[in-house]
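User: Can you predict the 3D structure for this chain?
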Amino acid sequence: MRGRFFGLAWLLLALGLYDLLIEPVMGEAWYWLWVGLAIVLLLWFYYARLLPRTAVQPRAQYVVLRGPLRRVKISYGRIHTITPVKLAQHLHPNTLSSSEREVLEPYLHVTAVFVALSTMPKALQRPRLWFPRWLFSPVQPGLLLVVNDWMALSRELEERRATWRDQRLQATQPDKRSLAARVLQDD
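Assistant: Here is the predicted structure, written as structure tokens:
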């Protein structure tokens, strides 16, 4: 999409400059040409600069799902399971629109990470404003994450989730060791 919008922007710019400097061929519609150019440039900026910023970042206390315009923190307490899946298992080609099918076709048989969530965060209750709908599984609540190295992401999420769970468990349980054992561990 980035290349298409870039080409369309150049075409509209050339037409606008021709209309402005050489011969007015647009008549009264010249204004809409420049409005169209501005819209195409905004769409190019979105696809060229903002969309590549999307990421999944496992942190110590939560996972950050960063979209082009918004980021959402998902607690490890909400994560039920982390499993590898094929996108076609969750996104059937018959349920996708033709434009979605065109975008997702190369990825339907690629291994992705499915992060099943017990409940969706409030920030993701209306995800269509900020994230594409194919990021969310229609089969069960969760995220479908297509990344270059699905094994590394899966392993990192599991490790951070286990560490988070251990920290929570230690914080809730009192230390039952003797004073001597605690002093010896501190040294």
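Residues 150-172 form the longest helix (23 residues). The mean pLDDT is 79.
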